Amino acid sequence: MPRSFYLVIWVQFIAAIADNALLIVAIARLMEIGAALWIIPLLKLGFTLSYVFLAPLVGPLADAWPKGRVMFLANSLKACAVLTLLTGADPVLVMAIAGLGAAIYGPAKYGLITELLPAQLLVRANGFIEASTVCAVIFGTVAGGVLISPALRHGAWAQGGSAFTGLSTTLVPGMLVLLALYALAALLNTAIPDSGARYARHSARIKPMVLRFFQDNRLLWRDPLGRVSMAVTTLLWGMGATLQLIVLRWAQQCLGLTLELAAYLQGVTALGVIAGAVLASRHVSLSTATRVLPLGIFMGLLVPCMVWVQSPLLAGLLLMIFGALAGFFVVPMNALLQHRGQQLLSAGRSIAVQGFNENAGMLLMLALYAGATALELSLGLLLWCFGLAVAGAMAAILWRQRAQSQVTVPGRA
User: Fold this and answer.
1) 269: Cβ–Cβ under 8 A, 6 or more apart, which residues?
2) What one-character-per-residue DSSP string does 6-18 give?
3) CA-based nearest residue to 293, from 129, 407, 377
4) Which CATH number is 3-187+210-400 given?
5) Most C-beta atoms within 10 A of its C-beta, which of 37, 196, 277, 407?
6) What are the domain boundaries of the chain?
7) Closest CA to 172 of 286, 322, 29, 345
8) pLDDT digit string (tens) for 172-203?
9) What is the pLDDT of residues 286-295, one digit of tens each?
10) CA 262, 266, 271 angle in degrees (round to 5)?
11) What are phi and psi of 410, to 5 degrees?
């Protein structure tokens, strides 16, 4: 692996820590101002909107300039989001601004990796990315818990921070830490070298860009391998985003944990994802990527088991198993989609299409979860419906993939 790849990993690690901690701090801020429970899913919705609505723009943007420069812009926008939070803005608006930076960041990051590495190293590279991202989830959720902990919120720093900003909240120290993390990530982006890859310029007008984007989207969905990997990653992203909020609620209602401790519990899931990602990077190749599809059905059926768990120890074990399955499952699918996307389109454009579909899936599932929460459906019913829906969708994808016996997998004759 080239040194520039490891630099990208480190920058991603720092930014992802801040992203996950920001969500916890934003939830704490909503609770501090007495917001309704159903507003909490809107934080994720706000973060995700830019991925969907700006997808036609972010792909060409990532291909138009050296990707380190684009990543610098993205992390600078996230820093601006924290500054907005420090002014007392609505946390949902703050997450929307951070989501704008994240939407720009994704095509640049993954596009740079496909430019730096040959196809045979993509599964291994995705193993590194998944492991580093999940480590960041662990540290980010733990950091979020620390940033909203009583020790930090009621110390001298909190009082001084509130006096300095004029904002009536005890969360100022945590917000300042987030601002420093995003600033550090932006600074490190300036050290990422140019890969040298150049792409043909295309129209900067909105209508041609939108038309070309949906042509790209149709091309990937019509490709047999592109369709399977896109469907799986779209489902997984929606599942992961919704389950993150469900676990926080489950830990507080069923396990009796505070938001701070519930955030720590999410880190246990991340440990499992790391183990699964490492195993996948060592034992799964592009030619065998589709063999992991049955695991998705089992993952869905595992979700309702949360109903019977009331011990934090058993909860941690269940979440670790779930995370390991998710890590082993998502790494090959991501690598396969990146490989097909680069072959059919360009690095930035293919990742933009991937981000559009995955985050559209997130929006749909989060909207359904927000609606179910507003209707005050029981947590047990939510878990059963969620798990069975995921298992059923994965079974349909697996059936469709096996029905296409004529599909040629990369690496096979």
Assistant:
1) 137, 247, 319, 320, 322, 323
2) HHHHHHHHHHHHH
3) 407
4) 1.20.1250.20
5) 277
6) 3-187+210-400
7) 29
8) 888 888 999 999 999 998 887 765 555 556 55
9) 667 677 778 8
10) 145
11) -55, 135
